[in-house]
Amino acid sequence: MKYKKSNKNSKPTDEVIRVRTPNQNEREVLGIVETMLGANRIRVRCMDGVVRIGRIPGKMKKRTWIRVNDVVILVPWQFQNEKADIKWRYERMHAEWLERRGYLRE
């Protein structure tokens, strides 16, 4: 009996099954990437109205490519509020879902 092989290069479906939302208990904030600064740093406009310098951690650096206008989750530093660590990057269809649900506001 033949089994159908899964194709690693297949495109994902357009339906959104599950979307990770920011956890307020862990101080997570949504933001939109404004510019790439280099050296694993990006400038992010956060939904709480603050423009922060985001640091891309080493485990995300090669696996997840972050570009301008991407929606990300970041955690502000406790001792410097203008800096933050990037936790998650949303794909385009997930970002559109967040915008429809009212999570992203200007």
From TrEMBL:
GO terms for molecular function: RNA binding; translation initiation factor activity. Signal peptide: none annotated. InterPro entries: NA-bd_OB-fold, RNA-binding_domain_S1_IF1, TIF_eIF-1A, TIF_eIF-1A_CS. Residues 17-91 form the S1-like domain. It comes from the Archaea. The keyword Cytoplasm does not apply. Keywords: Initiation factor, Protein biosynthesis. Pfam families: eIF-1a (PF01176). Seems to be required for maximal rate of protein biosynthesis. Enhances ribosome dissociation into subunits and stabilizes the binding of the initiator Met-tRNA(I) to 40 S ribosomal subunits. Belongs to the eIF-1A family. This is Translation initiation factor 1A. It comes from Candidatus Ethanoperedens thermophilum.
